[in-house]
């Protein structure tokens, strides 16, 4: 897939001189992580490819495995959101029918039993984000293979912990047929379609729109800290754009690795930015200067992260590696992650500075 002549070159990889990624869990051979959702630095849920659940309440040092009841087997998991140590939401779309439906499930007993709380016709894609244990937003985008379900989208809100979802208490600002990204932080929510990012500071009643780098294209992996500090990727391959504090303009980073891999996950917090292309490279990529420069970092010898997330009410980062079935944690409550160059004959070194 990649230019093999580059593989004989040296890579400047970095190692932590203080805080390091620590392995927290290795799954059985039949499982990989589909989603990681960390309520805070102690409470973290893992949801796997075969719909098994792992829960820790002590920062990943001990785990409880849950075999859930109530989730349909002929479904693909689309979104997972742990609300508290006992409550979580799961979004799925029904397989093989071509017309869905999509379903949202809720558990209130630490993942043991799940009940459907929302359904929509069509093949559905979902995003879920909660302000707190009671209030949150959900996007549902839908279509069908035979046109029986007209392509469209909805923005819905819950005020009772996900038990019911309605459009009555929210305003959908987009006329696009698909809502691509949703993120909540504090009192703010951000929503992205193919043309714009929308920001709401009042629970989704009103929205302020900002332009995207390009119109009518596919974006993913939105990571946004504030209206003037965000990263987003265009398309399936690495094509990153960044906004930095003090400006609403998007900077085109392109592909900082130079290898044109398929970007699967990205994370932005403070001055740190991470992303990974696990199907193409063993290394993750890390920036300590608000996505201006990136350095290759190999955390797991078997591959790069396929899932990256941050503790919502904390500081720690969590990364899952599908090829080794492992979950890693970066303790950011320790000293700042610091790196130094180290030769590693794996892939060619590719650094790119974007101003």
Features:
single chain, 355 residues, mainly beta, four-stranded antiparallel beta sheet, 29 strands, globular, disordered C terminus
Give me the secondary-structure topology:
Elements: E1 11-16, E2 21-26, E3 33-38, E4 44-48, E5 53-56, E6 64-66, E7 75-82, E8 88-94, E9 102-107, E10 115-120, E11 123-130, E12 136-143, E13 152-158, E14 181-185, E15 188-192, E16 196-200, E17 208-211, E18 219-226, E19 229-234, E20 240-243, E21 251-254, E22 265-269, E23 272-276, E24 284-287, E25 295-297, E26 307-310, E27 317-321, E28 326-330, E29 339-344
Antiparallel strand pairs: 1-29, 2-28, 3-4, 4-5, 5-6, 7-8, 8-9, 9-10, 11-12, 12-13, 14-15, 15-16, 16-17, 18-19, 19-20, 20-21, 22-23, 23-24, 24-25, 26-27, 27-28
**For the residues shown, what is the average pLDDT?**
89
Total strands: 29
Q: Give helix % range.
A: under 10%
Structural class: mainly beta
Terminal-residue CA separation: 30 Å
Overall, the morphology is globular
Q: Provide the spatial order of strands within the biggest beta sheet.
A: 2-28-27-26
The topology string of helices and strands comes to: EEEEEEEEEEEEEEEEEEEEEEEEEEEEE
